[in-house]
Structures are given as C-alpha cells and as structure tokens.
Amino acid sequence: MEKLRRAILTILCGLVLSLAYVSPAAAQTIDLGKPLLLVAAPGLSGFYGRTVLIAVPVKDEHFGFILNRSMGMKMTQLFPDHLPSAKVVDPIYLGGPQLPEALFALLRHDPGKPSLRLLTDLFVISTRGLIDKVIEETPNEARYFTGFVGWRRGELASELKSGYWYALDADADAVFHGAPDAMWEEFLQKAQMSRDGI
Prior knowledge:
This protein is of the alpha+beta class. It has one domain (about 35-195): VC0467-like, CATH 3.40.1740. The chain is built from 6 helices and 10 strands. The protein has helices at about 1-20, 75-80, 130-135, 155-160, 170-175, 185-195; strands at about 35-40, 50-60, 60-65, 70-75, 90-95, 100-105, 115-120, 120-125, 140-150, 165-170. Strands 1, 2, 3, 4, 5, 6, 7, 8, 9 and 10 form a 10-stranded mixed beta sheet that branches. Strand 7 and strand 8 form a beta hairpin. The protein is globular.
C-alpha cells in the first residue's frame, strides 16, 4: 500500500511539474505571416543563445537578422580603402550564419531600387553600389550586418513549438536599439509579460 501511495505521489508531482512549465510560444497565438521579433528563450544555448532576431516571411519561408551581436569591427576595418566608411559610428553586426561574406544595410527609409521592404518603415539592401551610396550620404541612418538567418518552410513554426523563441511584433525601433548589449534582457522581460498577459 505504501509503495502504491508513493507511486501515485510521484506521478502527481511529475504532472504538476510538467504543467508548471509553459514553453514561450505555448500561451501565444503566433501569426507567421507577419514579421516577428524572436527572443531566445533562457534555455536556448549555443549560437543563438541570448539573441534577439527579426524574422520576415517570404512566401512559405522566413529570413532575418540577429540584432544584438556586434562583431566588434568598424566599417572602416572592413573597407579600409573606402574613406567614407570611417563616418560609420556603429560597429558591424553579425546578422547570421548564412552568406557571412555578404553585407546588408537596414534603413528606416527606402533608399531606392534594389531594396526590399521588411516593415512599413524598414528596408534592406545588399548591393555594393547602393550600400556605398548610403555610407557616403547618410552613413549613420543604417545598421550594417554580415550574413543573415534563414528558415525553410515549417522550420520556424517547429522552433517556436519547441520553445526556442518568444515572439513579439516586429518594429524598426528594435533594429536600431540604442543598447544592443542589453536587448536580450529587455525584450525577454517584454515577451514574458506579453505571454503572461501583463
């Protein structure tokens, strides 16, 4: 009888503990058809640990950029022979593992073709000539990234279901956050409050 009672208590304790854990996305209804901010869950380690990303849908896939991982390198170090690059104040950011040799610039205004609109007030460019023009004319109105993050069809939905990310509505202010080193803690708190309905 004592063994049976202990077994029942063990099962009940396990059930209570499993119910107590709610994955980041579990209490959210997430629309994958719109741009999102992804905030790494505290338990996510490795390359994406403590990151904040913007993820934008393109057909059935998503692409985006890590927003808070500075490479500790200035534009002038990347292009020492391009004198206007010295005017860029912010460091270059590691946007993601795909195409790490490619440079992208994110801006609040449309710099002209070829650009891609990510949000109402956010555009991305990747052609050298257009990036040079931005650097020469308005160097600090853009944030610069090397590489990007890509998700195949169903991958982001699977990651959210697995609890890797909290999801928030994307906005351009996050891309140009004034303190990228503090972003993860700030947005994690926002995401947890949003999940809990606070």
